[in-house]
Amino acid sequence: xxxSNSSGSGRxxxxxxxxxxxxxxxxxxxxxxxxxxEKARDAEASQVANASPTVTVAPAKAAPDTTTLTLPxxxxxxRETFVFARANGFVKSWSADIGQRVQAGQVLAEVTTPELDQxxxxxxxxxxxxxxxYNRLAGVALPGAISxxxxxxxxxxxxxxQAAVQQLLAQQAFRRxxxxxxxxxxxRNVEVGTLVxxxxxxxxxxxxxxxxxxxxxxxxxxxxxxxxxKNGLEADYxxxxxxxxxxxxxxxxxxxxxxxxxxxxxxxxxxxNARGELRPGSYAQVRFHLPRTAPSVIIPANALVxxxxxxxxxxxQAGKIHYQPIVTGRDFGSQLExxxxxxxxxxxxxxxxxxxxxxxxxxxxxxxxxxxxxxxPPPKPRPNDPDAPRVSSPxx
Length: 396
What we know:
The chain is of the alpha+beta class and 396 residues long. The protein has helices spanning 2-50, 114-138, 148-172; strands at residues 54-59, 61-62, 66-83, 89-94, 101-102, 107-112, 176-178, 183-188, 195-196, 207-222, 234-238, 247-258, 264-272, 283-291, 297-300, 312-317, 320-325, 327-331, 335-340, 347-349, 363-366, 391-394. It is rod-shaped.
């Protein structure tokens, strides 16, 4: 009986032991891989925490010798003027219409002047009377019959009437409206029978004549580019009607002073137009090729450290961060000109984080331009687009 109980108790404890061994094995199989993963993760986190941060860098580059600057321009003819009547009357005939080329002195229209003709007839009659009176007094032979003062008064009256006739005849010559210079008629405001007067009030002009063999383009150059504007500087004249084509132009003069309200320099650019392809009044752009006036460096705009009152960049020297104050020049959008503080070749940190400190050890990674997105390419901008903003960029 006791042997039977002892045998049953042994089997029980053996079963318990087997169960414990099985559960222990299962526990070890599940725990040990997880323990190794946690240990590796902790080691990796510790290594990352103790490692130097990695920053993206790009080199500062010496600025090119030339900068392009594209600005909108107002285009005018080389010479232009309104033609007014110089005598009162009615248009008898006209012989020049818009678009017609005329020569200096060519008759554009003729005016009848009935009132002026009547004034000339009266003035001639008065002249004849004054001449007769003077001759009569001058022919008196009796000494002392007339005074010298009476003779002088008659002579003066005769001369005044002569001058009056000459003045009216000079006005009568203006019955023929002529072109003041060779050019093209761009406005005609007359018809046969139109009443005209010698007034130059707005709207009373008869013609407008323009000389278009050369054009004048007026450009407002910003203050920071004004020192590079010189007489004789060559430029490109661009119009939307001729995409991809640049007409040669040249700076001929500037205002010599900046506009106080806009801080810009009014600059006149002359454009040859012997073939008449270009039209005055058109919207246009002028592209300048400006020489560099002082040594400078070009940096990416995102290399500038944000915040603060003074401009500065973060450079990497011998694997450590160094903050360098700079003096910025012209803004080219995605690039900046640095006038002082850099020499070129420095490794600049792009998008520097606020956590970077002076002298901190870092690892560097060279900047690589992003890949072009998949899909159709974006539409190309229209050449010489009138709605395009002012553009300036360093020439590479």
